[in-house]
């Protein structure tokens, strides 16, 4: 079985998220990364267990690791999981 999260898959997902869903990444950092002062964030990589972000907090770049609630099977599972996480995060925003 091939690695569902090859560097190419991670790069493709990160590029899409950074270009089209920057607001969602900042929300992940604020809610799941326990970094409520995050102004913006970028997704650096994603694997079956979690994602690595860098958050901009008070003019500092802070690395964050956010673990998923399950091991992802493939990029489609990642897609659905990221959508579910942003929906969940939005319910926690005050």
Describe this protein's structure.
Residues 10-85 form the DUF2470 domain. The protein is of the alpha+beta class and 94 residues long. The chain has a single domain, classed as Split barrel-like. Helices cover 45% and strands 24% of the residues. The protein is built from 3 helices and 3 strands, in the order H-H-E-E-E-H. It has helices at 7-20, 22-31, 75-92, and strands at residues 40-46, 50-57, 60-67. The protein has a 3-stranded antiparallel beta sheet. The longest helix is centred in the C-terminal third of the chain and has 18 residues, at 75-92. The mean pLDDT is 93.
Summarize the structure.
By secondary structure, the chain is an alpha+beta fold.
Give the radius of gyration.
13 Å
Domain module count: 1
Order of helices and strands: HHEEEH
The count of strands amounts to 3
Sequence-ordered SSE layout with sheet pairings:
Layout: H1 7-20, H2 22-31, E1 40-46, E2 50-57, E3 60-67, H3 75-92
Antiparallel strand pairs: 1-2, 2-3
Question: Which descriptors would you attach to this protein?
Answer:
single chain, about 25% strand, alpha+beta, about 90 residues, Split barrel-like
């Amino acid at each position: 079985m091939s690695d569902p999260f090859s560097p190419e898959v991670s790069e493709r997902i990160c590029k899409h998220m950074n270009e089209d869903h920057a607001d969602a990444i900042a929300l992940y950092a604020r809610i799941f990364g326990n970094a409520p002062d995050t102004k913006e964030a970028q997704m650096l990589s994603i694997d079956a267990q979690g994602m690595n972000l860098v958050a901009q907090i008070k003019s500092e770049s802070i690395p964050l690791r956010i673990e998923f609630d399950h091991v992802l099977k493939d990029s489609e599972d990642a897609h659905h999981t990221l959508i579910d996480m942003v929906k969940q995060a939005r319910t926690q925003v005050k």
